[in-house]
Design brief:
Layout (H helix, E strand, L loop, with lengths): L17 H10 L2 H24 L4 H6 L14 H8 L11 H31 L5 H10 L5 H14 L1 E3 L2 E4 L8 H24 L4 H9 L4 H12 L1 H16 L3 H6 L9 H9 L6 H31 L6
Length: 319
């Protein structure tokens, strides 16, 4: 029976042997466990210090370290009230709450768009054979070496005035600079090469029999992708979604470039950089704003961590 398209048969390998077992034993030893605990504590201390400093009044933050709060506790929640809802104490038109909403409006589509496009592209490149598919995959892979900073100005010119050769307009003026569209597009374009590469490597390891069974039963490639590939690739999708969410949420350069100084679309990171001011004062407000900015990424990570671990371990063993 003929199928809608010829299916490629990727070679599936899994690491086995004494070397792999030795590595697993070394990582599960008591020494490795103690080392991980020490590194975890060292990694957590700065975040805990930021949390404590965010509750200290301005005078205490300027004259002593956060650890002195345990000897002389004098904490207040007024820093969060000022940062979230007020503006007179650190300049600007409002607190950071509108910018927090802007960051969500930028980050959620900026994560879903490249993830959706990359998943479909990875399936096609891994399982649908067509002329030039290998060359296209290597071209996408090579795009990872293009520095993000190198593309900022050309993209900004494209979004603002289009692309021209002489008097011939190749791309008309889009006039999307300073809008969510420019930020979504920029984050999607910068994320696609790595996303396609990572998801392709995962999807290409799926059992060939599953893909062929769906095609033989009359399903088209879209249905195979939706009903077979997506459920099996959930760990890889979730793992990349975590990374992409964190990259977009913590981004400052793209937000400064494409938001165009428009407060209605500026992300939270831009607002936090404005709070620093010329002299870097009001540290109690900066620490409160910084801690607010890490709460949502932490919630996303902990909610998806089980998929993240599965994505890291996928393909490491047979079965």
């Amino acid at each position: 029976m003929s199928t809608p398209a010829e299916v490629v048969s990727p070679i599936k390998t899994a690491p086995t042997g004494p070397a792999v077992k030795a590595v697993r034993r070394s990582f599960s030893s008591p020494i490795a466990t103690v080392l991980v605990l020490v590194l975890t504590v060292l990694w957590t201390v700065p975040t805990f210090g930021l949390f404590v400093a965010s509750f200290r009044p301005g005078g205490a933050s300027a004259t002593s370290g956060w650890w002195t709060a345990f000897a002389h506790p004098h904490l207040t929640v007024s820093n969060y009230d000022t940062v979230l809802f007020q503006s007179a104490n650190f300049g600007g038109s409002s607190g950071i709450m509108p910018f927090l909403v802007n960051s969500l409006a930028i980050t959620i589509p900026g994560t879903l768009f490249p993830l959706t496009i990359a998943a479909m592209a990875a399936y096609v490149l891994a399982w649908v054979k067509f002329r030039g598919s290998d060359a296209l995959f290597f071209f996408i892979f090579a795009l990872q070496v293009v520095p993000l900073q190198l593309a900022l100005v050309p993209l900004l010119q494209l979004f603002s005035g289009g692309a021209h050769i002489g008097t011939v307009a190749l791309v008309p003026a889009l006039n999307v600079s300073g809008t969510y569209v420019s930020l979504w597009t920029a984050h999607t374009m910068f994320a696609l090469p790595l996303a396609v590469y990572l998801l392709h490597n995962f999807i290409a390891q799926l059992p060939r029999d599953l893909i062929e069974a769906g095609l033989v039963d009359g399903a088209n490639h879209f249905r195979v992708f939706r009903t077979i590939v997506l459920p099996l690739a959930t760990p890889a999708l979730a793992a990349f979604a975590i990374f992409q969410f964190l990259w977009v949420w913590n981004d400052l350069l793209v937000g400064l470039t494409f938001a165009g100084g428009t407060p209605q679309v500026e992300p939270l990171t831009v607002r936090l950089s404005q709070m620093v001011g010329s002299f870097g004062g009001r540290w109690e407000l900066l620490t409160a704003g910084a801690f607010v900015s890490i709460v949502i990424p932490l919630a996303v990570f902990f909610s998806l961590q089980r998929y993240f671990v599965r994505g890291l371990l996928a393909g490491s063993v047979k079965g």
